Amino acid sequence: VKELERSGIPAVLICTLTSIAETVGANRFYPAIGIPHPLGDPKLSTDEERQLRKRMVAEAIQLLSGQSARL
Protein backbone atom coordinates (compact mmCIF):
# COMPACT_ATOMS: atom_id res chain seq x y z
CA VAL A 1 0.00 0.00 0.00
CA LYS A 2 2.79 2.41 0.85
CA GLU A 3 4.44 1.80 -2.53
CA LEU A 4 1.17 2.43 -4.37
CA GLU A 5 0.69 5.66 -2.42
CA ARG A 6 4.29 6.68 -3.08
CA SER A 7 3.73 6.31 -6.82
CA GLY A 8 0.60 8.49 -6.63
CA ILE A 9 -2.06 5.78 -6.58
CA PRO A 10 -4.38 6.16 -3.58
CA ALA A 11 -5.09 2.86 -1.87
CA VAL A 12 -6.92 1.38 1.10
CA LEU A 13 -5.56 -1.72 2.79
CA ILE A 14 -8.32 -4.09 3.88
CA CYS A 15 -6.73 -6.12 6.64
CA THR A 16 -7.49 -8.17 9.72
CA LEU A 17 -4.41 -7.11 11.68
CA THR A 18 -4.91 -3.36 11.87
CA SER A 19 -2.19 -2.97 14.47
CA ILE A 20 0.36 -4.13 11.88
CA ALA A 21 -1.08 -1.72 9.31
CA GLU A 22 -0.58 1.09 11.83
CA THR A 23 2.94 -0.08 12.66
CA VAL A 24 4.06 -0.12 9.03
CA GLY A 25 2.50 3.28 8.42
CA ALA A 26 -0.39 2.49 6.08
CA ASN A 27 -2.17 5.76 5.35
CA ARG A 28 -5.63 4.22 5.05
CA PHE A 29 -6.82 0.84 6.21
CA TYR A 30 -10.17 -0.80 6.76
CA PRO A 31 -10.62 -3.56 9.34
CA ALA A 32 -11.59 -6.91 7.83
CA ILE A 33 -13.77 -9.49 9.57
CA GLY A 34 -11.31 -12.27 10.28
CA ILE A 35 -8.17 -13.97 9.04
CA PRO A 36 -9.79 -16.95 7.28
CA HIS A 37 -12.58 -14.79 5.76
CA PRO A 38 -11.48 -11.14 5.55
CA LEU A 39 -14.39 -10.01 3.38
CA GLY A 40 -17.06 -12.48 4.30
CA ASP A 41 -18.79 -14.62 6.85
CA PRO A 42 -19.50 -18.24 5.91
CA LYS A 43 -22.34 -18.34 8.46
CA LEU A 44 -24.36 -15.89 6.34
CA SER A 45 -26.52 -16.77 3.37
CA THR A 46 -25.12 -16.07 -0.08
CA ASP A 47 -27.22 -12.91 -0.42
CA GLU A 48 -26.34 -11.65 3.07
CA GLU A 49 -22.66 -12.24 2.46
CA ARG A 50 -22.83 -10.43 -0.89
CA GLN A 51 -24.43 -7.43 0.83
CA LEU A 52 -21.79 -7.52 3.58
CA ARG A 53 -19.00 -7.49 0.99
CA LYS A 54 -20.59 -4.64 -0.95
CA ARG A 55 -20.94 -2.58 2.23
CA MET A 56 -17.36 -3.21 3.31
CA VAL A 57 -15.91 -2.33 -0.09
CA ALA A 58 -18.11 0.78 -0.31
CA GLU A 59 -16.89 1.93 3.12
CA ALA A 60 -13.27 1.27 2.14
CA ILE A 61 -13.80 3.37 -1.00
CA GLN A 62 -15.20 6.17 1.18
CA LEU A 63 -11.83 6.27 2.92
CA LEU A 64 -10.23 7.20 -0.40
CA SER A 65 -12.38 10.32 -0.63
CA GLY A 66 -11.58 11.33 2.93
CA GLN A 67 -15.04 10.53 4.24
CA SER A 68 -15.22 8.70 7.51
CA ALA A 69 -16.04 5.03 7.60
CA ARG A 70 -16.12 2.39 10.29
CA LEU A 71 -12.65 2.14 11.83
Describe the structure.
The chain is mainly α and 71 residues long. It contains three helices and two strands; from the N terminus they run αβαβα. A two-stranded parallel ribbon has the order 1-2. Helix 2 links the parallel strand 1 and strand 2. The longest helix is centred in the last third of the chain and has 19 residues. The relative contact order is 0.18. The mean pLDDT is 89.
Q: What low-confidence regions span 5 or more consecutive residues with pLDDT below 50?
A: none
Rg, nearest Å:
13 Å
Largest sheet: 2 strands, parallel
How many helix segments? 3
Helix content class: 40-55%
- In oligomeric terms, what are we looking at? single chain
Overall 3D shape: globular
| Class derived from helix and strand content | mainly alpha
| Terminal-residue CA separation | 17 Å
What is the count of β-strands? 2
Beta content comes to 5-15%
| N-to-C order of helices and strands | HEHEH
Would you tell me the overall average pLDDT?
89
Widest sheet: strand ordering: 1-2
What are its keywords?
71 residues, mainly alpha, two-stranded parallel ribbon, 2 strands
